[in-house]
Records
---
Amino acid sequence: MKLFFTALCLMPVLAMAAEDSASFKIVHAGDQQVVTSESLDKEFQQVLALSQWSKAQSKLKMTQLRFEQAKRDLERSKQLRTSGTITESKFSMIYFEYRTLEVDMINLPIDVSKYKMTAQYHALRVVEEGNPGQDHRLAQAQLMLEGVDLEIQTLTKSLELAGTAKSIAETYVKSGEKLRTREALSDADMERRQTTLQSTMIHAQDLEGQIELAKAAREGFSRTIARLKQ
């Protein structure tokens, strides 16, 4: 059921990344009324974004293959766990690998869409810079808002994964404490487990801060759009 639910969640974000970067028509500075240093720069930035878009699509395809394998591995490990032929530590590693790829399969399509919007933004800037009098600020602000929304989605999913990592690290620390009472774990190993836990906590706090910053940016772009529509 969990895997089925995940598949349903992935459907809309995968659809967002469906358009191939090869179909994008590059807007050239030389085709506009005037050519400026700014329009040339924006054409260059547009091409860079298209390159990143293409790379992100390839990475998504490769990750999808790994994710399908991770799903199969997880199902097998669940059976082994039930029969007692796999350790809890080994199962946790397999589960964490699956969760990492699960989040990647949500984040990567978002990255694809973000690079697409970046290319669209620079294309608009080429047109605006090369055709004095045209105003594309509203369309640009809307693209920025969409980009921030995607960034918030990415950070939120990363925070979920960080929560999983923190839970696993907490389990390792607790098991380590039990082993220490039996003197079956060295001080150095215990310190490493505690350091791992502290690292996951710092990472989660950093992601929370980034989410708040992105939300503040979203508020700013929303106000700009409302102002431009007046």
Note: The CA atoms of residues 63 and 104 lie 7 Å apart.
---
Amino acid sequence: MDQLLQTNQRRQFKRLGLFVGLALLAASLWTIARSGTLASQAWQHLRHASPLLFAALLGCVAVITLCTTLCMLVLTNRTRPPIRVQFREMLALICASTLGNFVPLQPGLIGRIAFHHQVHGIAVAISVLIAIQSTALTGIAALWIGAGLLLTNAAHLSWIAAAFSPIVLVPFLRTTTARQFAAAFFVRVLETCAWGLRIHIAFQLIGQPIDAPAALALACVANAANTIPFIGNGIGVREWSVGFLAPLIAGVPLADALAAELLGRVAEIIFFIPAGLAAWPMLHKRLRTHISTRVVDSNTFVYANEMLQK
């Protein structure tokens, strides 16, 4: 009964989060529409933009996904007893769960935890801890780059310097655990830089180019918004976080900043719909194969199976 109540509470929070996110998205579109000339200029730039920039935007989404996969792989495979999740399987889980987070009442994280529990025998508590560690590393990476921007007066922090700045930590990595977490942290820093490049390209597409430090600062903001619970993929919150701070950080009007972030959201959807749909059959087959060779807890299997079928 307690478990049922907790599930119902999660669903209620998910509904509320979805409602808030969609309301914020609607407000973003309304703000852009009423901006008049700004919206027209952004649309004109978008229509005449190079196809290579659109391809680069999708490429950034792909790189971000690969970085998320690598981080989760490092954190998962360091558990005891040793777990060896394959890269292909983790990539499929990330794609499927990210797409699932766009859908009401289908929490991708819980489906991923259930899958790991059944297929790899990872305790639910351990999976939750890994998720917390992953989120914490995202926040630490954002703080790390933010500190770098402050220490270098922003203008002197380049993409390469930001991406490889964690190298300064190498002399302090004297234990296996420290090296494992440092590897995951390094991947998160690379991911934040990829976010910055994605934001840089999106702003350029709408005719509001910004420099690398501004893009990196907004990337830190966007990543922080993504970690808010019960609002899948930071829907709505991320757009407004970037929109409010872009005028201060990059001198870009609110409406243009919202348009740029919405463009990035569209790129996400374009990428994850085919990627997530392609991942589900593979994960379903993996789950079925495992079930046929091992007796497992039926309730958890049913839940994981439902997550993969929806």
Note: Residues 152 and 213 are 10 Å apart (CA to CA).
---
Amino acid sequence: MTIRWQIFIFVTLLFVGVGVTGSAVARWLETEVVRQSFDDEANGLAVTVQEFLAPADVAALRAGKPLAQTRLGATLDRLERWAIVRRLTLIDRGSGKVLVDTVPGAPAPTLASLGRIGPVEVRPLPLRRSDDGHMLLPLIELTKDGHAVLLVEISADEYVQERATILHDVEVDGTLATLAGLAVAALLGWLISRPIHRLGRAVDKIGSPAFTEGETGSVIQEISDLGNTFGVMHSVLGETVEKGRRALLESDAYRSDLGLAAVYRQQLQPPAGWSTGGADAAWLPVGLTPPAYLAGGLELPAGGAAFAGVAGSGGDLAATVRARAAAAYLRDALARHPMPEAALETELLFGLQELRVVRWGGAGLETWNSAHCRGAAPDAAAWARGEPVALASLGAVNRARLDYYLATFAGHATAGLLAELPPLLDAGEPGLLLVLRRRPSPDIS
């Protein structure tokens, strides 16, 4: 997990935790205040109603006198008109008979469900919803003479609405705290991850000219220190590379003709295999120190041409330079002059020790060999049969092994000799080998 996500999750959870805890505490405090205020108001109303109910009224009601002919009846009309009392029920303690119920038809409690009530106790019952959808709070108490139980129900709509409003405010506060946490977490993650990303880009550029100290700076001290460390690493690496470069330039491997010739030969060597003019070719230098060789091919209007030769010792820088120059000159001359003329002119002009040149057009193969070439000339008959043809400057041992390989594995792909021949040849006998194979013409019948 990245540091940006760690910061994002931690800060968001912190804000959510603080917001939820703070909102829960605020809700509890506000709800407690509203509840105590409502309880005080409800108790006061219940005691007030009790004061209006005289013992004589209770006795009259127990005797069967109508409610309207008592003092309670007149008082109750005013209480209902003012919407203070929504329901009043009077139950005889002795018989359990309902003496008064201002809401006929509504379920009336029994003495058993009310339980034992103290002389001065005002007991609230659970809130209930009336048939018309209003919330009511029932309260029970004894009359002054203790002969009846008085049940008074008052409206609790305002109390319930205040609690719902408090809950809504708590939900809004919690949502705002969460959104604030997300915003702060995103901002902190961006501020901290931005210099870290710059450090990542700077690491990729350490040691290169594109590295700049400006990408490693930060207002965070630890990140700035790490950036300074990367800057030191870049400087040290640059100094080390420069020292190594100077050491290589001043070493014997580059100062001697042998080292320069090896590097020059390696950098300018032609591809190991190619296809041109309807033929596939592959060449291979032989020996721990191969000679200063030249090898290549080109496509001509009527077919193609290839050549292989030796200019001198592999450790001779001048011979290596002459070999590269002779290859370029011969490639140009073959495209403009007859093959014998171009080959002889190249041999004499650059002082080559050996040179073999072939030129073909379809199944016909024309060959030219310098007078100093070792071994047999390329076989035109083998070329016509589609077998591999070798332009080789090899010693006797390696030439014999090459002939045996070509005779045994004539069907192998030309490029395969690059992997199969080196283990068979003697590295102590330097030379050069180029193998050609004519590609069969497509069947148009």
Note: The mean pLDDT is 78.
---
Amino acid sequence: MKDLLEKFINREVGINIERPLRIDSATLTSVSDFYFSVIDENKGYTHHFSYNSIIQIIEHPDGIDVGGLFEHKKHFNLVIKVGHIPEFTPM
């Protein structure tokens, strides 16, 4: 996993940082032996994810288009999907 991600250090990637079904832009800033770090485009926060949180990685040299029906399509060479803990709120 580390070898795959190292190719994209300091590059923009797509990742579902805060919401499971929404891919946002982030810059991959670091890849260590146990986790990787990204800075999100919207708030500038640094997020750290362990490798075991990764569900899927999609890579394509011509890029991957992501976006919803009424959203502007974004284009990434690497998309990372991480698992999220479901949030339950009392009714």
Note: Residues 17 and 24 are 7 Å apart (CA to CA).
